[in-house]
Amino acid sequence: xxxxxxxxxxxxxxxxxxxxxxxxxxxxxxxxxxxxxxxxxxxxxxxxxxxxxxxxxxxxxxxxxxxxxxxxxxxxxxxxxxxxxxxxxxxxxxxxxxxxxxxxxxxxxxxxxxxxxxxxxxxxxxxxxxxxxxxxxxxxxxxxxxxxxxxxxxxxxxxxxxxxxxxxxxxxxxxxxxxxxxxxxxxxxxxxxxxxxxxxxxxxxxxxxxxxxxxxxxxxxxxxxxxxxxxxxxxxxxxxxxxxxxxxxxxxxxxxxxxxxxxxxxxxxxxxxxxxxxxxxxxxxxxxxxxxxxxxxxxxxxxxxxxxxxxxxxxxxxxxxxxxxxxxxxxx
Length: 332
Ligand code: NAD
Prior knowledge:
By secondary structure, the protein is an alpha/beta fold. It folds into 2 domains: about 10-150 and about 295-320, Rossmann fold (3-Layer(aba) Sandwich), CATH 3.40.50.720; about 155-290, no CATH class. It is built from 12 helices and 13 strands. Helix 1 (about 15-25) crosses helix 12 (about 295-315). The protein is globular and about 65 Å long. Bound molecules: nicotinamide-adenine-dinucleotide. Nicotinamide-adenine-dinucleotide (NAD) binds next to helix 1, strand 2, helix 3, helix 8 and helix 12.
């Protein structure tokens, strides 16, 4: 298919573990220019492209990208203020904490009500949060936003792999995702870890959001830094159901997160089991390379989906799509 020749001007919402990794990744891309980044205390914007090193230095020194010399602005409403530059932003990667559970959907709605016309991709994890975004389909289609929900790793890369693997089967019996994540310390990915704790027995999203950093630390001390997660409420299920691959009840997601070691505690796999048209039952398993980090497996697909969404938007496709509806396009 034809290639788009433009360079997309990209904004990253959130400057934590994933947002900072997205900044580093964008610095290596010639088909995308990183024009904006926002955190809870400010934002940085430069229509000609941000200096990734200056953004990182400012954040390391002051704790906010809003102090970046030349491009930074300190503000308590970075997203609202950044919207003033909406006409100079082609694509938005949402790497915000989804705490509370409707936070990211409200940010998406805010972009739409502002009249933003561009593409947006999230790395949402929860089924209930993805459902809230899916409900915005008509609004986003009306405004002219092309949106990919669940464009990270799981959901995202693994969900897409499941949708491809399913093609060998006449009927899919199950999709089983098991992820392994290793990070050197939990503070680099506070939202990710809090949202994972919300899946543990006895916790929910509100309880995880209320936990102080000290409380998270003592929970991790009790578990030796390991989080074992089973039967998670992960949007891979609704995404595969909406794409017509399999009923959501047949999708299971679990994983092991080591918050004290960057090596993966287990390999990340997705296994699709089904029956073929000629009566055989079999399973395809896709395994991620152990050396690939969570950041690589989330930000890479997110930008691939952004490129695909932009390509579709130029062909008049708008509204909410999922990571199982479209193939990410490779960003050079
Ligand atoms: P983090 O806690 O490290 O960083 C969050 C960032 O958002 C911070 O920079 C913070 O200042 C900023 N922020 C918070 N409120 C804001 C606001 N109102 N306006 C502007 N900025 C604001 O987060 P993280 O660990 O990088 O995770 C980001 C998201 O990615 C989480 O929702 C997590 O669940 C998701 N995630 C998805 C996958 C996947 O595979 N789908 C994997 C990992 C993480």
